[in-house]
Structure formats: structure tokens, C-alpha cells
Amino acid sequence: MINVGIIGGAGYTGGELIRLLINHPQVNISYIHSRSNAGKFVYEVHKDLLGDTDLQFSADVLQDIDCLFLCLGHGESTKFLQENKLDSAIKIIDLANDFRLQKDKVQDVLGRSFVYGLPELNKEEIINAKNIANPGCFATTIQLGLLPLAKAGLLKDIYTTGITGSTGAGQSLSATSHFSWRANNIQAYKTLTHQHLGEIGESLHQLQGETDFDLSFVPWRGDFTRGIFVSSTITTDLALEELYPLFDEFYKDHPFTQVSKMPVF
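The line above is the sequence of N-acetyl-gamma-glutamyl-phosphate reductase; the predicted C-alpha cells follow.
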């Protein structure tokens, strides 16, 4: 049994993580930390968990665990690890973006190195990792469509659009996350400048080497709650029937990804 702690368990990411872990046969949740909800039952915040757990949010950061999940806002994980000196034996899985990029994977001030946690790319490294940087949502979706093509050296000019639900913006209210704004509406944002472009580029170069390619990405905010749909276009002389085997071979040992050959138009 693996004993885990969760930091920042009151947000959307924390709630989904709790739902997964309380039903995992090999995991025991030792504590769920929340500064703003300490003492409350978890189901008072995540009402969908009523009847599934009687855990309460804790104000303490305990060290008697095997693994710690960080579900904090972007940039907060580094600050948390600076302020809380954890036992080096505790494995850390960070769900924010603090340690995804190569330049961020080793922090001298923390003394920890992080593996980029996309299993379809770094499966063996993840198995042996002490610390894992969870991939971004758009980054995961885009990479899954491009990794087999990168391995085959086929990427040059990539044009990608993607639309995401409102939960991706987090639980804090903002002008573009209010339902009254998003209802019957869509909006492009961070056109060609999205923060996930860095980690996508590193992953594709990991498979294709230093061969140059250009990735143009336009993300959209959608009129729905959760989920992402991405469409990527590349230029190639290969027919679709010649590309399918690249995907079948690449994902044959990755059960989380299914290759569909059904027409979408």
C-alpha cells in the first residue's frame, strides 16, 4: 500500500485526483492539505464525493508518506518546496507547470530533478523516477497526435487548433470562466503564445532530434465544462493508410491511448 499526501486538494485538479485515488486499490490517502478549508470534510467542497470519503482537509504538511501530489497553482509548487523541507525519500508528483521544461527540471534550491511525466514518451523513466512533472492538458492532447510523426521525422510545418472546457481555467472566478460569459460563446486566446508550446517542442525534439519544425497553435475557450478537442495539420507526401502503421506501432504498448481509424468527416 502506498501512502500519499495531497497539497492543494480543494481545487478542480485536487478533486479529480482524490476521486481517482480513493478508488485505487493500492493507495491510501494519508492527508489532504488545504490552507483555506482546513477542518472541513472533503465532501463539503467536492460535493460529488459525498458518500465516497469521510476525510477532512488538513492544515499540516505531514512527512510520514511515500508520495506527495502537488495540486497548486502554477509557480506555487516551487515556493511550497522551498518553504517545506521534505524528506528526500518522499516522491513528488507535481501537477502544475513548475518543472516541465528542461531548464526547470533540476532546481539547485530544491535539490530535486523531475522527469516529464508523459507515459507515451517517457514510460521507462517514469517507472524509475523519484519526482515527476505532470504534463499540461493541451500539451498532452497535442503531443499524442504528433509523437509518432516526430519519431518518423515527418514534422516540419504544424498547424494546430484546440478547444477546451471551462474547468481548465481552474476554480477561481475570472471574466472568461464565468458561465454567463462562456455560454453560447467561444474565444481564441494566447494565439501562438500558449505556455504549453515549450514542453511540446521539447518532447517533439526528443524524438525527431534537432531537425527544425514550426508549430503554430491557436487555443480556444469552449462553451462546455470539461474536455479538449485538438486538430493538427501537417504537410506530407504519405497517404493516410501509410501513416496509420506509425501510430499503431508507437502506441501498441500504451493502454491509455487508442488509435481510431474511423472517419471524422
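Note on the example: The chain has a mean pLDDT of 91. Helices lie at 12-22, 42-45, 76-83, 119-127, 137-151, 179-182, 197-208, 240-250.
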